[in-house]
Amino acid sequence: MRLLKDNKGQIRTIEAFFASMLLLASLTLIPAAQNKPSNSSDMLSSTALNILLSLDSSGHLAELINKGSWTDLKNSIQSAVSPAMWFNLTVFNENMVSINDTPICSGSAVSDNIVSTDYVCVAASSNYTVFIVRLQLAVVD
C-alpha cells in the first residue's frame, strides 16, 4: 500500500529516462568534430625541424659544419628523411652568406610545394660561432 503512494522513485526514473534521451539526441544531432586532414606543408615543416633538432641534440650538426664536412652532413640528412622526399640544405653565417661550397641536396627539386625551415645552430668552441641552417623539403610527386 505504501509503494503505491510513494511516487518519488517513479518520477526519478522517468526524469533519468528523459535526461538520457536528451543526451543521446544531442549527441546524434550535433555532428562530431571532424579531424582536419593534415596539411602537408605543416607536416614537412615539422619533419624538417625534427631532423635538425635531432642532429643538433648532441652537437653533431655544429661539429659537421665547423669541419666543413658537407658529405657527412648530406649523409646524415639523407638517412633521416624518407626516400620519397627531396631535400636541400644550406648553411649560412651570421651575415646570411652561404658557407657550404658544395650543394647538400638529393637532386633537383621535383615538386612546387617546397617548405623551408630555418634553424639557428651555435658551435661551442673557443669563440661561439652562429650558423643559420636552412633545410628545404618537398614530397616527390
- In the sheet with the most strands, the strands line up as 2-1-4-3
Write down the overall geometry: elongated
Helix/strand class: alpha+beta
Radius of gyration: 29 Å
Total separate domains: 1
Q: In terms of per-residue confidence, which ranges show pLDDT below 50 for 5 or more consecutive residues?
A: none
Number of strands: 4
Helix content: 40-55%
Number of helical segments with 4 or more residues: 5
Residue fraction in strands: 15-25%
**Could you describe the largest sheet, including whether it forms a barrel?**
4 strands, antiparallel
* Mean pLDDT reading: 82
Classify the oligomer.
Answer: single chain
Secondary-structure element string = HHHHHEEEE
Distance between the termini: 80 Å
How would you explain this protein's 3D organization?
The structure is a single chain. The N and C termini lie far apart (80 Å). This protein is an alpha+beta fold. It contains five helices and four strands; from the N terminus they run H-H-H-H-H-E-E-E-E. It has helices at 2-5, 8-29, 40-56, 60-67, 70-80, and strands at 85-92, 104-105, 115-123, 129-139. It has a four-stranded antiparallel sheet. The longest helix has 22 residues, at 8-29. 44% of the residues lie in helices and 21% in strands.
